[in-house]
Amino acid sequence: MQAAHWAQVLQDSGFAAAIRGGAFVYPFVNILHVLAVGLIVGSIVALDFRVLGFARIVSVEGASRLLTPFAVAGLLIAIPSGFALFAADAVSLSQNKLMWIKLALIALGIANALLFRKLWNPHLGAWERHATTLAKSQALLSILIWLSVPSLGRLIAYL
Length: 159
Ligand code: HEM
What we know:
The chain has helices at residues 2-11, 14-20, 25-52, 60-88, 90-94, 97-120, 127-130, 133-155. It is mainly alpha-helical. It has one domain. Helix 3 (25-52) runs antiparallel to helix 4 (60-88) and helix 3 runs antiparallel to helix 8. The protein is elongated and about 55 Å long. The mean pLDDT is 95. The structure holds protoporphyrin IX containing FE. Residues 30, 33-34, 37, 40-41, 78-79, 82-83, 85-86, 89, 93, 103, 106, 146, 149-150, 153-154, 156-157 line the site of protoporphyrin IX containing FE.
C-alpha cells in the first residue's frame, strides 16, 4: 500500500512527466542506461575472471586499477538513469517482482564488491599468494550477479 502510494506520487511528479514527455528524452535515458550497463558488466566481469586466475600475464592490481574506475563510472550513470526510467512508469514497475529482484541483486552485487575491497585490497599486489577460496567465491558470485542484473532488466519489458 505504502509502496503503491509512493510509486503513484513519483509517477505523477514533474520529473517523471519530463522523462516521458517529448519523443527523445526516454529513449536517450534508456540508451544512457544501456551504455552504463555495458561499462559495468564489461569491467566487473573481466576483473572477476582475472581474480579467478585467467590472463595471469596481467597483474590483478593492474587489472583492478584499469577496470575499477569504469565499473564505478558505470554504476554512477546506471543508478540515476535507472531511477529516471523507473519514475516514468513507477506504478506498473513497482508491481513487477523482477524489478525488485533486480534491485536486490544490485544491492548484493555492490555489497559483495565493497566487502571484496575491504578484505583483499591490501593483498592485490601479491595476489597469486593470497587468492583464497573465499575471494574466488566472491568473484564467481559477482559474475553470476552482474550477468543476472541486465538479464532481469531486459526481461522486465516482457514479464
Ligand atoms: C538502482 C539502479 C537501477 C534502476 C532503478 C533500474 C531501473 C530500470 C528500469 C525501470 C528499466 C526499464 C524497464 C522497462 O520498463 O522495460 C531498466 C532497464 C534495464 N536495466 Fe536497469 N536499473 C538500475 C540499474 C541497472 C544496472 C546496474 C543494470 C546492469 C548492470 C541494469 C540493466 C538494465 C537493462 C539491461 C535494462 C533493459 C534496457 C533495454 O533493453 O531497454 N540496470 N532498468
